[in-house]
Automatic annotation (TrEMBL), chain A:
Keywords in alphabetical order: Ribonucleoprotein, Ribosomal protein
PANTHER family xrefs: LARGE RIBOSOMAL SUBUNIT PROTEIN BL17M, RIBOSOMAL PROTEIN L17
Alphabetical list of Gene3D superfamilies matching this protein: Ribosomal protein L17
InterPro entries: Ribosomal_bL17 (IPR000456), Ribosomal_bL17_sf (IPR036373)
Pfam families: Ribosomal_L17 (PF01196)
GO CC terms of this entry: mitochondrial large ribosomal subunit
SUPFAM superfamilies named in the record: Prokaryotic ribosomal protein L17
Higher taxonomy: Eukaryota, Metazoa, Ecdysozoa, Arthropoda, Hexapoda
Membership in a protein family: Belongs to the bacterial ribosomal protein bL17 family.
GO MF, any single term: structural constituent of ribosome
GO terms of biological process kind: translation
Descriptive protein name: Large ribosomal subunit protein bL17m
From TrEMBL, chain B:
Family under the similarity heading: Belongs to the bacterial ribosomal protein bL19 family.
Predominant subcellular localization, coarse grouping: mitochondrion
Name listed for the protein in its UniProt record: Large ribosomal subunit protein bL19m
Molecular-function GO terms, alphabetical: structural constituent of ribosome
Compartments, as annotated in UniProt: Mitochondrion
Key words of the record: Mitochondrion, Ribonucleoprotein, Ribosomal protein, Transit peptide
Any GO BP: translation
GO cellular component, one term: mitochondrial large ribosomal subunit
Organism of derivation: Melipona bicolor
């Protein structure tokens, strides 16, 4: 049983955080792991939606969420937060984007700031699971495309019933107007 | 044993209508993290309201520093909401019987412990707290002192029923989270007189003792040059060990955002936990302060009579 460290206060992340960090494969150990995550994190903040291998996407997601929540919590005047942003974001113009675009965007969010979708493996390809990692509230069309013509959706059921009723009325009318 | 269980049962049923919780949410027995507000416990609206106010109030701010053992283990694999709640209740019950003072690593404590083999069946140990670890009922601390020229460390469980009294003789912090390097420091730095009295000082903030301690020459119990210690003067080791320490240093670890997240409990959850135990803890704190003031007054009077 460990005691929780209490010096730093953090906000709760709004997605299911795994109990253990993944060891992303590289020769430099934990330093190399952070370097890989830095690259992906910079790309996510830059492009707002990227497709990559699932493990790396899921691992990066936590860091993106934490960086945004720290920026929300302390703002750009806080020295340690600025240091964090400087460490994590490789392209420095994106530090401005973090504090001036993303922080106002996520001010009143009650959900997570990022979204992770499962993506298909393209045949023939590698066996690694693919994923799409995106920032919420981006300008692109949604990844999930729901089919509005499914028969069991409520509006379709109501329309079907209305059509049936109309048809029955028509039949009755035709039957009444028939002359033998 | 039966006595204990009966007592426990009584208190359980009296304090919290846990039966409702058990009936309502059988899934709370799973090992997953459970983050829910218990409706069964907030029976009336007024209490719920006060709880909301407490969450917002800044007085809960330093509770995490004063009562770190009330926070559960940050590892989600070891979490269990019901067990944590029961442990918190037991801790409060123990605290209502034994006054456990506020203390930190670096504070000097006196613990009176019932020992069947000691003269008078009571044993008192005074020492500096060099380690605080564990959470819940298993939280413990390590005291160090020098007895007959020999360093002695005693490991106490904070909620051990055999502890009769805990006094904080000097309330202060040191620069490091653990003072295990005192084992390799000259004995004078961990020597404290057994007849020390409680220091009369009531200040708002906890003083930080920024003493820098020199270490003994090698060999040491651990490779202290690798630990980035703030409370140690200068560490002298040979070049090979310096190189090794430099190679093993992890300066990027402080930027590892998820590592810090996985080692702590998020603020929202902390507020939930402390607003649960706030009323009881506050009551106990007031009682403790009254007792402390009484003790100080008595001591002042006795010292005056002595001088006369």
């Amino acid at each position: 049983m460990n005691q929780a460290k209490v010096e730093k206060l953090v906000s709760r992340l709004r997605y299911n955080v795994g109990p253990k960090p993944r060891k992303l494969k590289n020769v430099d150990g934990s330093e190399g792991r952070l370097r890989k995550i830095k690259k992906t994190l910079t790309a996510v903040i830059k492009y707002e939606r990227i497709e990559l291998n699932y493990a790396r996407a899921d691992e990066t997601r936590g860091y993106v969420e934490r960086l945004i929540s720290e920026a929300l919590r302390h703002g750009p005047e806080h020295v340690e937060t600025m240091e964090l942003a400087n460490f994590w974001i490789n392209e420095k113009q994106l530090v401005h984007k973090l504090f001036k675009v993303l922080v106002p965007r996520y001010q009143n969010y009650t959900t997570s700031f990022t979204k992770l979708h499962n993506a298909p493996c393209i045949y023939p390809g590698y066996a690694y699971k693919r994923a799409i990692l995106e920032l919420r509230g981006n300008i692109y069309p949604t990844v999930e495309q729901s089919n509005p013509h499914q028969h069991n959706l409520l509006h379709n059921i109501l329309l079907d019933a209305a059509r049936k009723e109309y048809r029955m009325e028509k039949y009755k009318e035709i039957a009444a107007n028939m002359n033998f | 044993m039966t006595m204990v269980s009966r007592l426990w049962c009584q208190k359980t049923w009296q304090n919290l209508a846990l039966a409702k919780v058990l009936g309502k949410e059988p899934k709370t027995f799973s090992t997953l993290v459970q983050l829910k507000t218990d409706e069964a416990i907030d029976d009336n609206d007024s209490q719920a309201q006060t709880n909301d106010e407490l969450i917002k109030s800044p007085s809960l701010g330093n509770y995490r520093l004063v009562y770190p053992e009330f926070l559960p283990d940050p590892n989600p694999l070891f979490r269990n909401g019901i067990r944590e709640k029961l442990e918190r209740m037991d801790m409060l019950n123990r605290r209502s019987v034994l006054s456990i003072p506020e203390f930190y690593v670096g504070s000097i404590l006196a613990v009176t412990y019932s020992d069947p083999h000691a003269v008078g069946k009571i044993n008192k140990f005074v020492g500096i707290c060099i380690l605080r670890e564990g959470c819940g009922l298993r939280s413990s601390f390590l005291l160090r002192n020098v007895v007959n020229g020999e360093g002695v460390e005693v490991h106490y469980d904070l909620y051990d029923p055999a502890i009769q009294k805990i006094d904080c003789l000097r309330l202060e912090k040191r620069l490091d989270d653990e003072l295990l390097y005192l084992r390799d420091a000259p004995l004078e730095y961990s020597t404290f007189p057994f007849d020390m009295e409680i220091e009369a000082k009531i200040s708002e903030s906890i003083p930080v003792n920024d003493i820098k301690i020199p270490l003994n020459p090698l060999p040491w119990s651990q490779r202290w040059e690798r630990y980035n210690l703030k409370g140690v003067k200068e560490i002298v080791v040979n070049e090979r060990r310096q190189k090794k320490a430099a190679a093993l240093a992890k300066p990027w670890e402080k930027y590892d955002l998820m590592k810090t997240y996985r080692e702590t409990i998020p603020e929202e959850e902390q507020n939930e936990i402390f607003s649960d135990v706030y009323t009881k803890l506050n009551e106990l704190e007031i009682q403790k302060n009254i007792l402390k003031r009484k003790y100080m007054l008595q001591r002042q009077k006795s010292s005056k009579t002595r001088t006369l």
